[in-house]
Amino acid sequence: MPISPNADNWVLDDAKQITRLNESNLNKDLKKLATETGQEVRYVTIHRLDYGETAQSFAEQIFARWFPSPEAGANQTVIVLDDVTNTIGIKSGEETAALLPEEISESITKETMKAPLIKSNSYNRAFGDATVRLAAILTGDPDPGPPVIEETINVEGTFATAEETEENRTSSTWIVVVLLILATVIPMATYYWYQSMGG
């Protein structure tokens, strides 16, 4: 990981999960957010964490490395995603924490970003949704909340009814009987044909 964040790059995609187009859009949106509000959000994706490390502890380590003093990190937020476990960690500075309480931070990492990952492993959508929600909160707009997850439950059974089973049983019985007769008659006919040819 770099010793300090790059001023022009708001996304550090070490895991190579974000498309170039989406990374460009995220950089543009996060730069605009920083210009308008002074609140800086940085995304980090990593492919594999060290043994015993969590996404949250890694986010805290990066935050401490990049922003060593409370003043430097006051209006900063770092979000780390481990693509092996799909776990997400978030660390914010003091000023940002006033706008982004712990409950909302957890909701962003565990609901807003997790929903696209659980549904379709869509890292681009996870970061896009998080950016929209963070931008709304950090600019002072009302929190749009986590996405609504629609569960589709198939209430219609996939098994056959008793009538369908009975109907198929009759036709299946006839197919088996015909195949047994053919399996007996064809070898016998072949044998007699060979005998008549040779004899």
UniProtKB/TrEMBL annotation:
The keyword rRNA processing does not apply. Keywords: Membrane, Transmembrane, Transmembrane helix. The chain crosses the membrane at residues 174-194. InterPro entries: TPM_dom (IPR007621). Pfam families: TPM_phosphatase. Residues 11-136 form the TPM domain. This is YgcG family protein.
